[in-house]
Amino acid sequence: QVKGDRLWDSLMEMAKIGATEKGGNCRLAASDLDKEGRDLFVRWCREAGCTVTVDKIGNIFARRPGKDNSLPPVMTGSHLDTQPTGGRFDGVYGVLAGLEVVRTLNDAGIETVAPVEVAVWTNEEGSRFSPAMMGSGVFADVFALEDIQAKQDVDGKTLGAELRRIGYEGAEPVGKPVKAYFEAHIEQGPILEAEEKTIGVVTGAQGQRWYEVTVVGQEAHAGPTPMARRRDALVGAARMVQAVNRIGLENQPNACATVGFLQVSPNSRNVIPGRVFFTIDFRHPQDEVLTKMDRELRDACSLIAVESGLEVEVEEFWYFPPTPFDEKCVAAVREGTKLYGYEHMNIVSGAGHDAVYMAKVAPTGMIFVPCEDGISHNEVENADPKDLEAGCNVLLHAMLERAQG
Amino acid sequence: QVKGDRLWDSLMEMAKIGATEKGGNCRLAASDLDKEGRDLFVRWCREAGCTVTVDKIGNIFARRPGKDNSLPPVMTGSHLDTQPTGGRFDGVYGVLAGLEVVRTLNDAGIETVAPVEVAVWTNEEGSRFSPAMMGSGVFADVFALEDIQAKQDVDGKTLGAELRRIGYEGAEPVGKPVKAYFEAHIEQGPILEAEEKTIGVVTGAQGQRWYEVTVVGQEAHAGPTPMARRRDALVGAARMVQAVNRIGLENQPNACATVGFLQVSPNSRNVIPGRVFFTIDFRHPQDEVLTKMDRELRDACSLIAVESGLEVEVEEFWYFPPTPFDEKCVAAVREGTKLYGYEHMNIVSGAGHDAVYMAKVAPTGMIFVPCEDGISHNEVENADPKDLEAGCNVLLHAMLERAQG
Ligand SMILES: NC(=O)NCCC(=O)O
Ligand SMILES: NC(=O)NCCC(=O)O
C-alpha cells in the first residue's frame, strides 16, 4: 500500500515550480523551470537511495537496485515538462507515482529481483519543441538523436543547446534493455469520470497524424484593395480550420481534429494577410480512418486553395499508428485493480504518451485515473487524491509482479 | 517644374534605410531605422535652407520662410514609417515630394508670401502602435497627447518612451494654425492604373471602423477531448473571419472588410485553443453603410458565439467618418493637373492618411499617383518615376497657388 498523502504532498511541492496565477503550471521543456523540477526530483530520488543517470537527450533514470542487477529494470515514469498553460498532474503524476513506489518498497524493506527504475522523459509535451514524446522517441529509436537535438523552439534555440545550458545533457548513450514499462497518468479525457470508474486499464493508444500547413496569398492594403481583387491567406486558412473541424465531426465516433497553432503574416491590422502557417492534429483508434481523414484533408485544402486563388502546402509532420499495449502488462494492471477492489474499465488512450514509444522496445502497459471534467492541457486541470493513490497502488502491484518474475 | 530625377534619387537613398530582401522597406514607427530615416530627412532639409522643429509627439516640421512669416504656413507632408513588410513609396513619396517642392523653389529663387512647411507625421501606419495616423491625430486634437504617448507595441514598449529613446520627442507643443495642407501619395489601389490616369484628384477619404474581438472558449487536450465536448475558440474565430469577409462582399460596391491581425492562445499544437484575439478593419465611403456593417458584424459574432458555446467581445477601437476635402484645395489640385496636361480623374481615398485628420483643422487636398498593380503594404510596391514627377509638379502648383494668395 502506497502512502497517498506523501504522493500528494510531493505533487504539490513540485507544482510550486512554474506555478501560474490560475493554479496551473508552466514548465516548458528544457527551460530554467524544467531544470528546477528535474533537480527536485533528482534530490528526492537520491534521498530514497537511488542512483541517478542522465542520457544524451536528457532522460533521467533513478535506479533502485534488485537482487539480480544483471537483469534489465522494470521501469515506470512519465514527464515533468508541461504545456504553456498546463496543469499540475499531466506527466508529473506518473513520475512521482514512480517515486512513491520506490519509497513504499523502501518502507516495506522489499528487495525486488530485477532492479526498478523511475524515468523522466525529455519534452513529452511537444509544445516548446515539436513533435511530442521526444526523449522516449529517441530511446525507442524512432528519432535520431542528432535530429532531435537540432529541433528549434520559436526563438530558434535548439533542444540540444538548451539541455546543455540547464545541465541535463547527460553522458549515457540513449536506449537500453527494459524488462517491462508501466506508466500511470491522468486520463485527460471525460470517460472514467462519466462512467464512475477509478482506474482505466489502458489497452493501447490511438494513432496520430500531425501536419504543418502553409497558405500563401498576397499582402495588400486593407483599404484601397477591392474585395474582388484580394488573395487573403487568412480567409482561406479560416475555411481550412472549418474543414479540419468538419472532418473531425464527420468521422465520429472517436475522431479528433484540432488546429492548435496558427500564425498570420505580416499580422498587421491594415494589411491583407499574405501568409498563414498552422498545424493540424488528427487522431483515431483505427489507422484506416486516419488514412481516410488524411485524404479528406488534402482534398479540402486543395479545393479551398483553388477556389480562393491561394497556394497551399500540406506537410505531414508526425505520424504514429494506433499502438496496442502488451497483453501481459495489461493483465498485470487489471489484476492490480481487482486485488484492491477498484472500479475499472478498459480504455484507449486519446493522448500520445512516452509509453507509446516504449511499447516499441519493451512490454508496456498504462494506468489511467480520472481528472476533473476531463480537462487537461489547462491550468484548471485537477484530480482526486484518492484516485491518484489508487492508480499508484495499481502501479506498485504491476511493477512488483513483473520485477519478481 | 520639379526635377523628377532628383526626387527619384532621394526616394532610392531613403529606401536603403530598412531595405528588405524582397526590395521593400521595414521602418517601424519610432524604431532605430525610423530614426535613421528621420535624420536623413532633417539633414536634407537643413541643406535646403529650412529650419527644423519637432513637436512632443515627434512630428517634424521643416520650414522655408516666406515674405510674411506671420502668416500660417502652407504645409505638405506624409510619413516615413512603413509596414513590417512595406514598400518604398507609401508615405515617403509625400515627404520627399515636399522636399522636392522646396528644392525647386530654391532653384527658381521664388519667395512665397506665406511660409512653406514639409511635415513628417509620427506613426501613420498604425502597425507597431495602433491605431494609425497618430501624429496628425494629436496635431488635429482627435487624440490626447498623453493617451498616444502611452500606446504600447506588442512588447509593451510605449510610443512616448520609444520617441525619447530615438531623440524625437521634441519640445514644441502639438498643433498650430495651417493655411492649407496638401499631401501627395501613391493610390495604394488599382483604379488609376486601370483607368490609365496619371493623377487622381482626391475628393475625400472613405470612413473606417476598426474593431478588437476576443473569443473565449476552453483550453483542453487535443487528443482525449471528444469533438462534442469542445469549446474551440479558433473554430469560432474562423467562422467570424468568414463572416467579416462575407459582410465585405455583401456590401458591394465599395465596402472593404479585413481581418489583418490574429493571435491564438495558448498556441500549442496539441491544445484546443482557449482564446483568440483578432482585429477587424471595415471601410466604406458612406457612413450609413458602415453603420449597417457594424450591426451585421455584431449579429454574426453573437450568433456564432451562441451556436459554439463561446464568449465573444466585439470592441470598436477606432472610427472616423467619411471625410470630404476642401473645395478650394481640390480645385487647386485639379487646375494643376490641367496646367500640365496630365490625364486625371476624381477619386476617393481608400486608405486613411494624415490628410484626413488635417482636414479637421485646415483646408486640405490630396494628390494620388498610380502604383503598380494597385499593390501597397507589400515589399513589391512600385511606382513609375514619371508619375511620381507628375504628382510632385501638381503639388508644387497647388502649394504655390495657396502660398501666394
Ligand atoms: N499526454 C500528452 O499530453 N501527450 C502529448 C502528446 C499528445 O498530444 O498526445
Ligand atoms: N496610407 C496608409 O496606409 N494609411 C494607414 C491607415 C489606413 O490603414 O488607412
Q: How would you explain this protein's 3D organization?
A:
Chains A, B: Zn(2+) 2 binds at residues 90, 125, 377. Chains A, B: Its cofactor is Zn(2+). Chains A, B: Belongs to the peptidase M20 family. The structure is a homodimer of 405-residue chains. With 405 residues, chain A is of the alpha+beta class. Chain A has twelve helices and 16 strands. In chain A, strands 1, 2, 3, 4, 5, 6, 14, 15 and 16 form a nine-stranded mixed sheet that branches. The longest helix of chain A is centred in the last third of the chain and has 22 residues, at 287-308. Chains A and B meet through strand 8, helix 8, strand 9, strand 10 and strand 11 of A and strand 8, helix 8, strand 9, strand 10 and strand 11 of B. The structure holds N-(aminocarbonyl)-beta-alanine (2 copies).
Kindly summarize this structure in a few lines.
Chains A, B: Residues 204-302 form the Peptidase M20 dimerisation domain. Two copies of one chain form a homodimer. Chain A contains twelve helices and 16 strands.
